[in-house]
Amino acid sequence: MKEIYLAGGCFWGAEKYLSLIPGVLETEVGYANGNTANPSYEDVRYRGTGHTETVRVRYDEGALDLGFLLELFFKAIDPLSLNRQGHDEGINYRTGVYYTDGADRPVIDAAMGALQKQFDRPVVVEVLPLENYYSAEEYHQKYLDKNPTGYCHVGSDTFAMLKKALEERAR
Question: Which domains does the chain have, with CATH numbers?
């Protein structure tokens, strides 16, 4: 099982989206790469801890390669938007790819290069080693499963796009 940490704005929608990808075995929402230990949501949102809302993704690399996982992740975010996704704004909503295995960096760099070629402005997705990660409170875990009508910047069109991309890949 491999692990990667992906920040795509509000972690509720990002977690739901990533959990639907075949080969993803486990997702968990939390706070990454900030400057305090064990932050709460209130700390991250209102007290400037520097963390970003992040999804820890554990996946079967035999069933899902990191390059394709990142390609799908990039389709669910606005990679040109700094510290904002949808209506959510602030440093805690920045986008990022955080890795724990240095061997993943060339794959991440290749995916970022392919992403950048799609735009004439700079992509602002952070790519950094994971410095720290803390699980979010239980009420945030699988939030959209528990609250199907909850707010999500990842809309139904994005979920439909994921379904189509997976169908095309299966052919």
Answer: 2-170 (3.30.1060.10)
